[in-house]
Write a structure and sequence with these properties.
The structure is a homohexamer of 138-residue chains.
Chain A: E1 4-16, H1 25-32, E2 41-53, H2 65-80, E3 83-84, H3 100-111, E4 119-128, E5 131-135
Parallel strand pairs in A: 1-3
Antiparallel strand pairs in A: 1-2, 2-4, 4-5
Chain lengths: 138, 138, 138, 138, 138, 138
């Protein structure tokens, strides 16, 4: 049976900064540069969620893209959109830097338990047009 | 020998609707929403065809991208561009929903027999900026 | 007082064909090419609505972009999205070709009466990545 | 003499929220929705600065695009990039909402005095892919 | 009668360098930087041609976009695509720097005499995603 | 430990032509078409470098994206940007066609020895919006 990969794009806007708590201001500045600025900065994040499986013989859907969108909104965007990633999000622990790399792992954990009839394949997240991270659950 | 993946983008514009023949209008509406609208809607489809192989030692080509483009036009775009995917296309059976997922499988079948000196690697198709499907022939 | 131009992008997907009723099939084919194909084709239309006015001293808004979005959905997208532009849309007369040029005029007429505290400046519509039309109400 | 319009794109990332100080939390919420969230959110802002004038007969430049870029960095990006628009920026008064509409006016005021051999024509700023504002100095 | 602006996008790839003949190598380097490199560099140019006029009552066209495309190919792209802008193009004089600013003026001159039933409105040319020039014939 | 893929986009502008030295002008023309034009043409190349590894527990970085950017500039862009790929680049041998396919292999070789704490995963290069190549080091 043919396995097809279906991707849904969503977007969210959030503030963050990068700062290791146990480090001095000087070391944080040296490692993170202006990403450590005290009062936060922010991004338009662009999220790509890919699921895989055989298209349903009747509907031709691997998964209903509208349902996938609703699920992403419920489990991910409702937490992250218009949030402060350092302060507001339950599933980002206070000791975890809200880097793009860590976010793709955390978003995977939010979504994976809810993808049931097909399989979650990857989480890809653009922080800017020049930087993105991707995670395949491994 | 180094294996390189070469991708060619093409575009086509087509009308379609989603509707299972054996289902009631109500069930089609419940499953497909406005995608089941009677008189069709349409999309600017964006197609990415990827082939793989070693670059030729003389030309540096995995495959001549112009020849790949001509092949895609002959075997795919001439059938799909400015068509109605529910009515006009010989290689889409009347019992197959013209979803993005089914289209990538069907486009693979159109192209695979004609890629000879290198190998077809994937067919990726954007239906909108928010939804795309990809198929690797497996 | 400073006049600022605020633009909101929206998208809709629709089917259409181009065909003058009084013309022979041959003449329609000669003028419109494959755009005259019998069973329709379609597009992902990308719409840019621009309003102008002074930003409100309190809110900093020329117009609330969320309200502008709701207005566009009510007066334009609810009619055009997932429609057949030749058959389904009340504000497109049967004698009007649904070209991008005619659509920007018709969309202007739909929206202009409802833009009250600032002024409608332009309607811009992409049919494909290579063709768009713009109308300034003149 | 031919007048040509030259545009330079730059980008910056910033946090902000929208909140009128004299208003209740309830009214701020009603007007600004989640844009009023307490701990800020943020955006990848995309800035287009357009100058106009006759190309220099020797260099063919309306203005050296590299010098324009340096000027934008000095007068605008050094203040706004990786900043909190509500807290960190000297040229945004505490009573001014950091909306896209107000930002284009403020960026114009930062740049206009420094464009000397040609003329500043417009400041255009994207907040998201769906919303942008433009200001022509009038 | 409603005046609509219709834009067609085309693309061409070309090599160029910037160098004033009467200047020393040092001065060329100081003014043009690496754009003066001896053996040329190049760009994917993106060209937007806008015409304006009333849509034809029958066809709904300001101008047939396919004919506009053919005209641009004949008068502009056949000269510029896969060319060296310093060496190969008859309508670029040897004393004219092939800057984006000069190119929009020269492309206007190539096209304007051939736009007959409607009017040429603007020529816009992207040299990179960060720099573009526009000319309105004035 | 979770393995995340981090990608950095960079851009460079270069001239090139395609021409096999031992072939006649006629054969070069037959195989390469206008890509064989004598005086070169050029492109805005868009480069995506992907590295993979576990995010650092403190910083949340697979690799500092700013350091990755600096490395790409030093080992790749300083050689390729504003260059003539047929004449100016030490790591492109005179017998190697500067095709996108060959470039991704050569860029891999430039970068791989310098990626130390994580692993180089892929080099992807766009020549135009319609053609790109990718190499995974195999």
């Amino acid at each position: 049976m043919a396995i097809v990969y279906l991707t849904r794009r969503e977007r969210f806007n959030a503030a963050h900064k990068l700062k290791v708590k146990g480090w001095s201001a000087k070391k944080n500045r040296a490692v993170f540069g202006k990403c450590a600025n005290k009062n936060f900065h922010g991004h338009n994040y662009e999220l790509f969620v890919t699921v895989k499986g055989p298209p349903d013989p009747d509907t031709g859907f691997v998964m209903d893209a509208k349902k996938l969108s609703k699920l992403i909104k419920k489990e991910v965007l409702n937490h992250l959109d218009h949030s402060n990633l350092n302060k507001d999000v339950k599933f980002i622990s206070k000791n975890t830097q809200p880097t793009t790399e860590n976010l793709v792992i955390l978003i995977w954990k939010q979504l994976a338990p809810h993808i049931k009839k097909c399989a979650l394949h990857s989480i890809k997240l653009y922080e800017t047009e020049n930087i993105f991270a991707e995670y395949f659950g491994e």
